[in-house]
Amino acid sequence: MLLTVTTTHRPATDLGYLLVKHPDRVHSFDVPTGTAHVLFPDATGDRCTAALLLDVDPQKLGAARGGRRQQAAPESFTLGQYVNDRPYAASSLLASALAKVFRSALRGESKDRPELTGEALPLEIRVPVLRCKGDPVALFAPLGWEVTARPIPLDDVPQGHPLAGDSPYADLTLTGTLRLSDALNHLYVLLPVLDDAKHYWVAPDEIDKLLRAGDGWLAGHPEKVLITRRYLAHRRSLAATALEQLDRDEADTVDAPVDTAADEEAELPVARKQSLAEQRREAVLAALAESGATRVLDLGCGGGALLGALIKDKRYTEIVGTDVSSRALDLAHRRLRLDRVPERQRGRVTLWQSALTYRDDRLKGYDAAVLMEVVEHVDPPRLPALEASVFGHARPATVVVTTPNAEYNVLYPGLTGMRHSDHRFEWNRAEFAGWTARTASAHGYDVTVRGVGETDERHGSPTQMAIFTRKEAA
């Protein structure tokens, strides 16, 4: 089985330093299931390709499978361990070989080119034969990749035959500008996920491997549940432990949520057909349009869901996203593909790390600020600090705040407690109205409160939205 990594970074042969492999040599490594070779079929200053070729030994593979308890069903015929697709289709076998031969690159380490390890490089990765039990686009695109997955047709099958058509295999090409360590960690996790199989027994230490390889991207991935379950071979106890840790990583520790509103809604039992996260974003965008703002802050931007919508609207000439979590900002950067958008459009968007409970002079002078599903993640004793920094110090002309309506929670079947594991509180309508009135009065704003989402006669709307307008700007 084969995997190639190509870059056009100049000099492109720096790829050899990052992979810790000399482009003029063929490097061979013994692995438990065969031999892994690394070679460079193309190595010039303009373009360099590194190829990882795994030569699977059926006898070694059979011994590795037989030496441990098998998680998959045993082969159904005598020669099954010899006659199968394992030596040819990319799988956990290739991921394991990648982890062994590119160990330093996966960790983002390079003795000779340390300055390059943190630099996003133009990359093209190809896996010519990959067994796909899922959609590669859904797994790789949220990480900043352009994905081409060409189905591989079955050979020598006449039209009309029940087996005619495409095989369950694809020729996968990923194109993007990413750090090499990120790219390799994506492959390490997602190749066995797409195959939905592991060639070895999955023990509890696999959780640590998953969390280490998924650091900075898995917690905010829209398919994190599927990825976690498949990577851990559908072992429920292991998946539950890993997801609990990912949820902790995803939530901000003090000031603002790492998660986006869309991701947060994924944990919420669905009470209505229409997406509440979508309705919320539309309501916020409408409020911003009404305000006439052109320079906007998204405070606690998380993975960048609202930022993506703001970028599409040309009325916004300057857009700033802030979050206390560097991991959230990395996710937003990838989601927005800021390395690849035209320079003129890239200049409209800025991402800053900033805690909302501390004054930040960079946030002063903007037309509007949004705190979308943010305040409920702040410990109540810290709310006055947030109010002072946003309404007292930054003082945008308009502030839009959304937060859950706790009264509505009874309409979600199976929901006990609050809507998200990191919520520190959830206000009912009277409590929210009281907070908005006190905050507006203390800092010189007028305020209007609206509901977002389908309204229940008794319990109100699922989301509450307040629009603060600074009096001297009214």
TrEMBL record:
Name of the protein described by the UniProt record: Small RNA 2'-O-methyltransferase
Keywords on record: Magnesium, Metal-binding, Methyltransferase, RNA-binding, RNA-mediated gene silencing, S-adenosyl-L-methionine, Transferase
Name of a matching Pfam family: Methyltransf_12
Reaction(s) the record says it catalyses: small RNA 3'-end nucleotide + S-adenosyl-L-methionine = small RNA 3'-end 2'-O-methylnucleotide + S-adenosyl-L-homocysteine + H(+)
Family: Belongs to the methyltransferase superfamily. HEN1 family.
MF terms (GO), sorted A to Z: metal ion binding; RNA binding; small RNA 2'-O-methyltransferase activity
Entry coiled-coil feature ranges: none
